[in-house]
From TrEMBL:
Pathway: Amino-acid degradation; L-histidine degradation into L-glutamate; N-formimidoyl-L-glutamate from L-histidine: step 3/3. It comes from Maledivibacter halophilus. Its EC number is 3.5.2.7. It catalyses: 4-imidazolone-5-propanoate + H2O = N-formimidoyl-L-glutamate. One of its GO terms (molecular function) is iron ion binding. Transmembrane segments: none annotated. GO terms for cellular component: cytoplasm. Keywords: Cytoplasm, Histidine metabolism, Hydrolase, Iron, Metal-binding, Zinc. This is Imidazolonepropionase. Binds 1 zinc or iron ion per subunit.
Length: 424
């Protein structure tokens, strides 16, 4: 189907997630559902949303390609706002080591972990990374993701960091999924800068950031602010310089050790602070006050066998929470949104409604795009997913299984599960 004028009608529920900005605290429970709803799409943009009856009174059906969504649920496309999708090589061996008890940091400190993926990414050609990227994006799309954030950070040198960002730039052009690019040059300390972390931060600021800015290769700057990686001071310096150059801030914060990353995120008014497994009460409250989004990555905690971030406490204290996969080759090799939904609802005490908000409008807000995507609102991009059951309540209920039947991106059908089984 390639018709940009589309009418989806008779949906059991249109879960609009209505809104153009971040939802905080209790607001996260309000999904603004329309029962027996319809959506009108023209030229890739949502033109009207309402009850099927009202919508049909105002349009001529014959002018549209029509999808009958009876007994189905419409949701905004998911926004996976934290991933490391471009990398070469895999770390299946390290996963086995972790199963036998080695910790993530132990593996990292003996030259595995991120540095292992840096080797693989340096060795891979741009074309290889593009082909791998396409497969990964296809998989994400099948889970109903229509916008994804992707980070560099498996280069740690000028050429490879730029290569990763260029690969994402290219993927964004050739693949229906939209990619928001983040520069994560400070993801680990390269061998030649061990003990000279300040110099490495200066190298990034002086030599890499200006080119990224000039070529518009990233919208966000991120840093792994962690004990034995980059300190609070180094992270602050990098993010503030990047901000001066026009890059918005994100942080990998308080993941393994409570370092004060949440407090730093509030101080510099970052768009989001991510992970936050060890974030302090004060840090969380400061983030709520400053409107910093807490992007939680339960797949990572699960895969590392760590305690989950305190999503319930954060929401109860007025924070805006987003959820993302953290898809990467080490700490969380999954693009599964159903897994994230299961972990958030069953283990993080988030309600189904909060979970959906965290994966849609708040995911969009974590990418500073809540005005364009993340909800089914008139004027927004027509990124809409048709789920095969009559209520959003089936998403957590159908544990670990994708409920996605069709994905519409910019008003065009790009995934139809029924087609996969057409010949059966
Ligand atoms: N914690 C730091 N960075 C990634 C892991 C990257 C890796 O292990 O390759 C994360 O967000 O989980
Ligand atoms: Zn990450």
């Amino acid at each position: 189907m390639n018709n940009k004028n589309l009418l989806i009608k008779n949906a059991s529920e249109v879960v609009t997630c209505k809104g153009f900005k971040t939802k905080k605290g209790n607001e996260m429970n309000d999904l603004h559902i329309i029962h027996d709803g319809a959506v009108v799409i023209e030229d890739g943009i949502i033109k009207a949303v309402g009850s099927t009856e009202k919508i049909l009174e105002n349009i001529k059906e014959e002018n549209y390609e029509v999808i009958d969504a009876s007994e189905k649920t419409l949701l905004p496309g998911f926004v996976d706002s934290h991933t490391h999708l471009v990398f070469g090589g895999y770390r299946a061996e390290e996963f086995s080591w972790r199963l036998r008890g080695d910790s993530y940091m132990e593996i990292m400190n003996r030259g595995g972990g991120i540095i292992n993926s840096v080797r693989g990414t340096k060795e891979a050609s741009k074309e290889e990374l593009i082909q791998l990227g396409k497969k990964r994006l296809n998989s994400m799309l099948s889970f109903g993701v229509t916008t994804v954030e992707g980070k560099s950070g498996y280069g740690l040198d000028f050429e490879t960091e730029i290569k990763q960002l260029e690969v994402m730039e290219q993927l964004d052009k050739v693949h229906p999924l939209d990619i928001v690019k983040t520069f994560l040059g400070a993801h680990a300390v390269p061998e030649e800068y061990k003990g000279k972390e300040d110099e490495f931060i200066d190298f990034i600021i002086e030599k890499v950031l200006p080119i990224i800015r000039k070529r518009n290769l990233a919208e966000f700057c991120d840093v792994f602010c962690e004990k034995n990686v980059f300190s609070i001071e180094q992270s602050r310096k990098l993010l503030l310089k990047a901000k001066e150059m026009g890059l918005k801030s994100k942080l990998h914060a308080d993941e393994i050790v409570r370092l004060g990353g949440a407090e730093l995120a509030a101080e510099i008014e970052a768009v989001s602070a991510d992970h936050l497994l060890q974030a302090s009460d004060e840090g969380i409250k400061a983030m709520a006050e400053k409107g910093v989004i807490a992007t939680l990555l339960p797949g990572t905690a699960f895969s590392l066998k760590e305690e989950f971030a305190r999503g319930r406490f954060m929401i109860d204290n007025g924070c805006a929470v987003a959820l993302a996969t953290d898809f990467n080759p080490g700490s969380c090799f999954t693009e599964s949104i159903p897994l994230i939904i299961s972990l958030a609802t069953l283990y993080m005490k988030m309600t189904p409604e909060e979970t959906i908000t965290a994966l849609t409008i708040n995911g969009a807000a974590a990418l500073d795009k809540a005005d364009k995507i993340g909800s089914i609102d008139v004027g927004k991009k027509a990124d809409i997913v048709i789920h095969e059951f009559p209520s959003y309540k089936f998403l957590p209920y159908h544990i670990g299984v994708s409920t996605v039947e069709m994905v519409i991106k910019n008003g065009i059908m790009v995934y139809d599960k029924n087609k996969v089984f057409e010949s059966i």
